[in-house]
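Worked example 3 (structure in, sequence out).
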């Protein structure tokens, strides 16, 4: 489903806390979090993994917890040797990949179950894909308190993503709201619904952006027109990072990047902070476009 993220996750327990790491291989997003055992289920609702990697040396209690997660989330389990989760092995794998001396710049301490989970997961995915995953360029330290924690029962009862009967997307809140013209937008909207903001400042910033676009029909239409034929840039870059891109993918990448100036023009003169930040970060990569088109 192009409108839904496909996460591979890893779990590591230290007896009191769980370290959880997850990767969306097609887009290159990489995240890690440390939670209490009582918070694990709520985090996994947000992550919704398709596969979970864990150590073959976890305690009996931890293994029973993982087995219960498999049944609840209908995901695959992959047991790997415990040395992959060793603190030094995991930390070295992360530092070597990101070419850093410490993970502090990513908001992570150099120890803890989240680091063990992240390092083991990165090594596992590299081995499975047989490449260095150059498109994974950062790791995000996630804090569960940054957004409202929704348990599985709440998500199902509110029919945010799927209906209670039939487990279908149609007639859910996501179905009613999703008017996105790209798969990237649909994935982002789904993530927002499962992770409601708690910080008033961030809520106000998002509301200001929505209000400006809601009242600026011309600007909104220009943006939608510019991006709707741009393809799935996130997953295109993922295939390139995994060295699985075809010539057609590269042509599609050039076509998508060539539309970025149209988005920049449409965002010219925006007033709200969030839209201005988005405009500032957009890069049309003209050299890459020229290189592809002349190859």
């Amino acid at each position: 489903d192009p409108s839904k993220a496909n996460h591979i996750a890893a779990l590591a327990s230290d007896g009191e806390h769980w370290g959880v790491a997850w990767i969306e291989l097609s887009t290159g997003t990489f995240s890690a979090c440390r939670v209490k055992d009582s918070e694990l289920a709520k985090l996994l609702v947000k992550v919704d993994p398709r596969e979970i990697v864990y150590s073959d040396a976890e305690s009996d209690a931890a293994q029973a917890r993982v087995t219960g997660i498999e049944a609840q989330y209908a995901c695959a389990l992959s047991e790997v040797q415990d040395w992959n989760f060793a603190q030094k092995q995991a930390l070295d794998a992360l530092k070597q990949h990101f070419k850093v001396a410490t993970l502090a710049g990513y908001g992570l301490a150099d120890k803890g179950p989240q680091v063990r989970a992240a390092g083991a997961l990165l090594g596992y995915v590299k081995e499975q894909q047989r490449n260095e995953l150059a498109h994974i360029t950062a790791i995000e330290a996630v804090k569960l308190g940054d957004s409202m924690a929704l348990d599985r029962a709440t998500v199902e009862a509110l029919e945010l993503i799927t209906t209670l009967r039939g487990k279908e997307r149609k007639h859910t809140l996501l179905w009613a709201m999703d008017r996105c013209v790209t798969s990237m937008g649909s994935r982002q909207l789904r993530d927002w619904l499962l992770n409601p903001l708690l910080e008033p400042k961030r809520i106000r910033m998002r509301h200001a952006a929505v209000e400006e676009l809601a009242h600026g029909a011309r600007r909104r239409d220009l943006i939608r027109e510019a991006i709707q034929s741009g393809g799935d840039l996130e997953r295109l870059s993922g295939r390139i990072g995994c060295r699985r891109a075809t010539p057609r993918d590269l042509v599609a990448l050039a076509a998508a990047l060539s539309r970025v100036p149209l988005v920049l023009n449409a965002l010219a003169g925006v007033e709200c902070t969030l839209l201005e930040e988005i405009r500032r970060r957009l890069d049309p990569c003209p050299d890459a476009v020229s290189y592809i088109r002349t190859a």
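Notes: The radius of gyration is 20 Å. The beta strands are 7-13, 17-24, 29-36, 49-55, 76-80, 140-141.
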